[in-house]
Amino acid sequence: MLARRFPFNLILEGATQRNRDDEYNQTNARLQKSFYIASDYKPAAAICMREDPFFGLRIMNRRPRSRRRLYLLLLVAAVVIPGVPAYIEFFLSRPVGEGPAGPKVKLSSFDDVWSQRKVQVIGVGDSITAGLGAKSPSHTFFNRVLENPDDEFADMKGVCLSAVLPNLESENYAISGSESSTHLDVILETIPTYDDSFGIVLMTSGGNDLIHSYGRSPPRECAMYSATLEQAEPWIENFRDRLDTMFRELAEKFPDGCEIYLGDIYDPTDGVGDAPSVFLPDWPDGLAIHDRYNRVIRDVAGKYDFVHVVPLHETFLGHGSHCRQFWRSTYDSDDPHYWFYTNIEDPNDRGYDAIRRIFLKTIAEQSTLRSGVEGSG
Q: CA 24 → CA 61, 63, 190, 289, distances in Å?
């Protein structure tokens, strides 16, 4: 009787409602707490309520936060979106370009034969003279100085030594990867004496003394990468003595006289000295040691009237790792392209075109064969 009259269903419904209210209150307290800022315990954003259609519970929603976050994201996007392509273009891009490269050569200098004498051209030095990085043997600077390749540019056709020295012979003794100590050994032990020929020596030496061994081992003479200037001082003076000996020994190989054309050492960082831009370890004294080596080349060459420095360093400025940076004084707006091979230390094909042009230009300006005054000191 009592069970029939007591509304147990109402008790259950009341308990369910209380549970729902308690659950809502607990949820509300947790959410409110999470929306307070620790510094001053004020609501970070306004809160509104909505009714859940399934459970019938009131659920709190948060309105959007301040627009400052949106503005910050827009500002970052405005910097990053144009900034990334600009960084790639000015700091990472190394386009090599196409077509002729290097200084203009005076064509009229090669219109007439310079001499009927027998002339022996030899190459001495490292991989630049050996031709590493050229797309074919006919495109190395040594071979292009002697003779035009079949695919020669129109402005250089007929501009080569074989066009003005009909009795010319040649031999290249350069060795890729060699250092200046090896060059002296080659001169002393490998190059013969040319008794009946006037000599023209095309030469590059000293660059590998600086860049070897790329910071992978402690610096030493003829492989001084990462050395301090103080460490390098005695090695620089030894290079001075070695270079002087090379010039004198080469002159003795040509009793009838010779001319030596030695390229100075170019800089793949365009005079900036930031070795990491060419993917090498940082070298704080690298630029100073490089400059000292080039000064030695000019000083020792200046002692002999038959030795002439070919300005590779000046010619290549603006064609290294900063070739796209228009704000630099070395920027070449006519040809803002990279002239170095993938190994950094050698030229690419366009670089070799530039080297043969500056060698030919220097030979045409300095050679005694053009004036008929044939001989060396």
A: 13, 19, 97, 77
Q: Answer for the pair 227, 211: CB distance below 8 angstroms, yes or no.
A: no
Range 252-274 burial, b when 16+ CB lie within 10 A, else e? ebbebbbbbbbbbbbbbbbbbbe
- What length does the chain have? 377
Question: DSSP labels for 129-191?
Answer: HHTTT-SSGGGSHHHHHHS--TT--GGGTT-SHHHH-TTEEEEE---TT--HHHHHHHHHHT-
Report the candidate in 222, 227, 297, 287 with the shortest Cα–Cα distance to residue 264. 297
pLDDT digits (tens, 9 = 90+) for 332-368: 999 999 999 999 999 999 999 999 999 999 999 999 9
pTM greater than 0.85: no
As a whole number of angstroms, the distance between CA 155 and CA 99 comes to: 11
Name the token pair of 20.
């729902």
CA distance 267 to 206: 12
pLDDT of residue 69: 79
What is each CA distance from 121 to 11, 14, 98, in whole angstroms?
115, 112, 29
Per-residue pLDDT tens digits for 90-113: 677 889 999 999 999 999 999 999
Q: Is the distance from CB of 148 to CB of 99 less than 8 angstroms?
A: no
For the chain, which ranges sit under pLDDT 70?
A: 1-65, 77, 86-87, 89-90, 372-377
Write down all domains in the chain, each with its CATH number in brackets.
2-62 (no CATH), 96-366 (3.40.50.1110)
